């Protein structure tokens, strides 16, 4: 039988040290939030990126048309 390198007691100790220490908990929550924003951005761009690019192009062309009409070219 394969001997485990990490025991359950070591895992429990690691879990308790990360969860019950306020400074480590705050650092872990910052990391989780950053990863969530990163993953959400990837998900959003993969699913709705074409709509964003179309809207961006549409707004840019409207802005350029209004600019050229304003300066009478």
From TrEMBL:
Membrane-spanning residues: 31-48, 54-71
Listed GO CC annotations: mitochondrial outer membrane translocase complex
The entry's keywords: Membrane, Transmembrane, Transmembrane helix
InterPro entries membership: TOM5_viridi
Domain of life: Eukaryota
Name of the protein this chain belongs to: Mitochondrial import receptor subunit TOM5 homolog
Naturally occurring in which organism (per UniProt): Brassica campestris
């Amino acid at each position: 039988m394969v001997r485990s390198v990490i025991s359950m007691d070591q895992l429990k100790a690691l879990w308790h040290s990360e969860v019950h220490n306020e400074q480590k908990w705050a650092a872990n929550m910052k990391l989780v939030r950053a990863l969530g924003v990163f993953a959400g951005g990837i998900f959003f761009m993969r699913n709705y990126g074409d709509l964003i690019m179309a809207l961006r192009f549409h707004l840019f062309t409207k802005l350029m048309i209004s600019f050229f009409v304003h300066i009478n070219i």
